Description:
Helices cover 47% and strands 14% of the residues. The protein has 272 residues and is α/β, with parallel strands linked by helices. It has a single domain, classed as Alpha-Beta Barrel (TIM Barrel). The protein has a nine-stranded parallel beta sheet, with helices on both faces. It is globular.
Amino acid sequence: MSRISAIASKRIQQENKLLIPYLVAGDPDLPTTLALMQELVQQGADIIELGIPFSDPASDGPVIQRGVERALDGGTTLRDTLALVAQFRQGDTETGIVLMGYLNPIEIMGYENFAASAAAAGVDGVLVVDMPPAESTELHRRLADAAIDTIYLVAPTTSAARAKDIAEACTGYLYYVSLKGVTGAAITDHEAIRESIESMRQLTDLPVVVGFGIKDTESARAMASVSDGIIIGSALVEQIAQLSGGDLEKPELPQCCAVIGEARSAIDSLQR
Length: 272
C-alpha cells in the first residue's frame, strides 16, 4: 500500500476527509517553503501538493502564477524541489507529498531519472497538469516502477469516456476540478459538483478530492461534504505572498497557514 493509500484509508476508517494544501516550491524561498510545509502538517494537512515552478503555468490563476514567478525569481528548479522533499523527509515520514506541475521540466530531466530521483527524495505522487493518460504511458510506467502514484485531473468539461479512461489510469486519489477555468475562481454550483463526484465514484474506488475555488471554511465544509477530501491552493498562496524570505519569524507561520487549520476544523465538524 502506498503512503497516499494508507493516509486515505486511515481517514476513511475515521469517517473523515482528506485535507490537501498546495503551495509552490521556493515561494518566497526554499527555507521558507520547508518551514511552511512543517507548519501545514501542524495545522492538519494529510498530504501536501508541492508545485514545481514553471515559466508557463497556463492552468493557474493570477495568485498562483505570482507565486511561481517569485519562486522562479529565486532560481528554484525541479532538482531544488526534489531536494526540498528530501529535506522535509528527514523529519516527517508520514505526510504524503505530491509533486504538481507541468511536463516540460520533467521531460528535460528524463522520465527514468525523474522517477528515480523522486522516489529517492520521498515523493509519493505526481500530477502533471498538461499530460492526459493517453500520452503518459511511459511516465506512468516509470512512476509505477518507482512505487509513486500517478494522479490525474477530471474537469466539468471531461467527457464520460475520457473520465473512465482517467479513472482507470489514476492511482492515489482522483482530483476533481470543481469549476471551469483556472485556479482561484469561486465555486457557484454545488449541486452540479455533487452529481459529478457521484459519477466519478461509479468509475473508481479511489478517493475523489475536490480542488479549485475552496477559499474559506464555508466552501471547505461544503466541498468536503460531497467528496473524500479537499485541496486548498490559491487561498494559501495568497497568504504566503505576504511573507518575506530569509529571516522569517516563526510566529508568522501559524498565521499564514491558518486557512488550513480553519479548514481542518470545518471539515472535522462534519463528523459531529
